[in-house]
Amino acid sequence: MPQDRTPTVRYRNATAFLALGAIWGSAFVAIKAGLSAFPPVLFAALRYDVAGVIVLGYAAVVTDPLPESRRDLAAIIVGSTLLIAGYHALLFVGELETTSATAAVIVSLSPVLTAGFARLALPGDRLSVAGVAGLALGFAGVVVIAQPDPARLLSSDVIGPLLVFGAACAFALGSVLTRWLDAELSIEAMEGWSMVGGAVLMHVLSLALGESPAAVEWTPTALLSLGYLSLVASALGFLLYFALLDRLGPVEINLVSYVAPVFAALTGFLLLGERIDVATASGFVVILVGFVLLKRDAIRETYVGWLAEAQP
């Protein structure tokens, strides 16, 4: 079915897209604020205790939420371990030692990594020279941000960005494996089950790391951060993402990764007094160029489609 591109629909889609960028960008700030009150992995687990129940409940209303095949179960396992537990455990721990804006910029590497993993996983679809250059630029952007000093490779200001980079890798690999499995379970149900399963895994990991619920300081900031991440960034954010994915397609919705760091920087500056440095801004530009090189054909096709639809 052709997409409706009337001015009203375009405006509605653009507004929803910016809202999603603002929600997911400000989520990095909510994480940073909440980490002063929660042990990091327990914080991530509690977030998805709430969000998982909401999204799974929504899936039960709009679709059949029950997995029916081994592929469905495999997709849920991949989602639980990589997309939810692996990504968020590394992200929350990494944000202990980096700013919200830096974390958001490094996570914006996910579409670059996803494209690279997808190409490498398909023997008949090798990366072109431009594609290899795009992938290399993505990694270079992380190096620019982390600025690793050989004499200080284990310092906290390097470990933090590297953990966030590991989170981006986990999310990208999980995305590729999920697409490769090609399960019949709806996106809403798969996300809901993954959130619940990921929350359970993170609770186990939290206990293994010696994190204690008694260490949580239930301050107003803690409650606000947890509520925002669970209800707004996760539940509302993913439901908004599902709607935009259906309307815009995967190429356009991927661009939200490059809008989120802008909102992360703004909210981090306004609420936490964080300042974005030259290295973070430069790394963001390098990663964005890498994404354009990797997805140049899809971006070109999308642009041509826009022009055709805009003509009377």
From TrEMBL:
InterPro entries: AA-Vitamin_Transporters (IPR050638), EamA_dom (IPR000620), EmrE-like (IPR037185). It holds the Pfam family EamA. Residues 17-145, 159-294 form the EamA domain. This is EamA domain-containing protein. The keyword ATP-binding does not apply. Keywords: Membrane, Transmembrane, Transmembrane helix. Its main location: membrane. The chain crosses the membrane at residues 12-31, 37-61, 73-94, 100-120, 127-146, 158-181, 193-210, 222-243, 255-272, 278-294. One of its GO terms (cellular component) is membrane. It comes from the Archaea. It is a multi-pass membrane protein. It is found in: Membrane.
